[in-house]
Specification:
There is one protein chain. With about 475 residues, the chain is an alpha/beta fold. It folds into two domains: about 300 residues, UDP-N-acetylmuramoyl-L-alanine:D-glutamate ligase; about 140 residues, Alpha-Beta Complex (Protein-Tyrosine Phosphatase, Chain A). The strands form three sheets. Strands 4-3-2-5-1-6-7-8 form an eight-stranded mixed sheet, sandwiched between helices. Strands 12-13-17-14-15-16 form a six-stranded mixed sheet. A three-stranded antiparallel sheet has the order 9-10-11. The relative contact order is 0.13.
Length: about 475
């Protein structure tokens, strides 16, 4: 059997397990699996990332900064846009199908042993987490960058102990699993902060900040807070992104070009920088990271599906926002960075999300919206979504389409009509509502079937053995 066929088989076997959204938050199965595998999650230091929005972008920036220092990285993120292999990256590149299949075949006998001992079988996400740990240990990598799946305390990734824990902004999401208040959600996410770790905290709602700082004190961790110990000193718009001055834990980094839009991405960059400084053991200004490498690393960062321009004439933007806080950040970034005089939305979201909240954030931004369906079985019916949208936008500004392809075609036609009318500033299309929606659109509109390309690496110093201080 050729590798492509075997890869399809393996993916089907993994997907046939409990799906990603059917979460049974408990660590007993995962702890048993990694024990059978020889605890690969302990093979090297870990930078662990949780929060509600911005986790994947922060993970990619952290990865880029680490690689600029000559470290070999393993990065585990979720969900994926186009291919399941995107979730497990080594040195910035998704693993190839051969390695994915080999890892699955190595891990699956142990997964089956765990399944036999528990009333609930291991999930899609747990199996992938075990595979990631095995791959990173076997490579081997110098550092793992792990993004939680859901929450933190009981997430499968939390069998690893991060020497640095990053908490991106917390807001309401996954309330069925994590609780209906910011305090309850923050309590779950605070669980990745371990004794003697450094907790790098993005700016948070007061209720979340109190929970996180209480956890820091309880476990004897140290803390670095955005806006206090580090942060964004200034930023201004630049072609294709923004120009930043970042204050790190012990140094200031000027003239940083970040090819991503929005103040939220600037905050993510500040968190990534502080995390890598903490990881490197920066102790005073003389030990600040090399400014040239920092500049190069940030300039090469990409975050597919996050305010990503995939077409021109009209401009088509993909964004993976899937909750009201994320959608508010998306809307603010578009208003700041683009000069559209007519913007049409294509919207498809999961029915268990706050659809009304997301559409309310989009209403001031969009001239009209086409509500549609993505490839997930959780996707809200377009008719139901259009009814909600009509309450917010008014019926005359809402259309619906059964298929995403048709919705995009409809939105592009509306944008073309606006452009033909000679409106200054141009017309555009925003496709959003879910990571799945962004991924489906990327398959339709992006190059190479939408697959994200391997990330470039900044000029690296020679690899060397790092001391314990540099790796903690």
């Amino acid at each position: 059997m050729d590798i492509e066929a075997r890869m399809r088989e393996v993916e089907q076997e993994i997907v046939a397990r409990r799906p990603e959204h059917s979460v049974d938050l408990a660590l007993d199965r995962m702890a048993e699996l990694v024990g059978l595998l020889g605890d690969p999650q302990r093979a090297c230091p870990v930078i662990h990332i949780t929060g509600t929005n911005g986790k994947t972008s922060t993970a990619r920036m952290t990865d880029a900064l680490l690689r600029s220092r000559g470290l070999r990285t393993g990065r585990f993120t979720s969900p994926h846009l186009v291919s399941i292999t995107e979730r497990i990256c080594v040195d910035g590149a998704p693993i190839d199908p051969e390695r994915f299949v080999a890892a699955y075949e190595e891990v699956i006998p142990y997964v089956q042993l765990v399944d036999a001992r528990h009333p609930v079988e291991m999930s899609f996400f747990e199996v992938l987490t075990g595979m990631a740990f095995a791959i990173f240990a076997d490579t081997p990598v110098d550092v793992m960058v792990l993004e939680v799946g859901v929450g933190g305390q009981d997430d499968a990734t939390n069998v690893a102990d991060g020497v640095v824990a990053i908490v991106t902004p917390i807001s309401l999401d996954h309330t069925r699993l994590l609780g209906g208040t910011i305090e309850e959600i923050a309590t779950q996410k605070a669980g990745i902060i371990k004794p003697e770790a450094v907790a790098v905290l993005a700016q948070q709602p007061l209720a979340a900040a109190e929970v996180l700082l209480r956890r820091v004190a309880q476990v004897g961790a140290s803390v670095a807070r955005e806006g206090v110990e580090f942060g964004v000193m200034s930023r201004e718009q630049a072609v294709g992104g923004q120009q930043l001055v970042l204050r790190g834990l012990r140094g200031t980094y000027d003239d940083i070009y970040l090819p991503l839009f929005g103040s939220h991405q600037a905050g993510n960059a500040a968190c990534a920088l502080a995390a890598v400084e903490a990881f490197a053991g920066v102790s005073d200004a003389a030990d600040a990271l090399d400014e040239g490498l920092v500049r190069e690393a940030f300039a090469m960062v990409s975050s597919p599906g996050r305010l990503e321009v995939v077409r021109r004439s009209p401009t088509i933007i993909l964004d993976a926002a899937h909750n009201p806080a994320g959608m508010a950040a998306t809307a603010a970034a578009i208003e700041e960075a683009f000069t559209f005089t007519h913007l049409t939305g294509v919207f498809a979201a999961s029915r268990d999300k706050d659809v009304r909240g997301m559409l309310s954030e989009l209403e001031p931004l969009l001239d009209e919206v086409v509500v549609t369906h993505n490839s997930s079985d959780r996707s809200m019916d377009p008719g139901q979504g259009a009814e909600i949208a009509a309450d917010i936008f008014g019926e005359d500004r809402v259309r619906s389409a059964a298929r995403l392809e048709d919705a995009i075609e409809d939105a592009v036609a509306l944008a073309d009509e606006a452009a033909e009318a000679g409106l200054p500033g141009g017309a555009g299309v925003l496709i959003t509502g879910s990571v799945i929606t962004a991924g489906d659109a990327r398959r339709l509109l992006g190059p190479a079937g939408g697959m994200p390309q391997a990330e470039p690496t900044a000029r690296q110093p020679a690899r060397h053995s790092f001391t314990a201080g540099e790796l903690s």
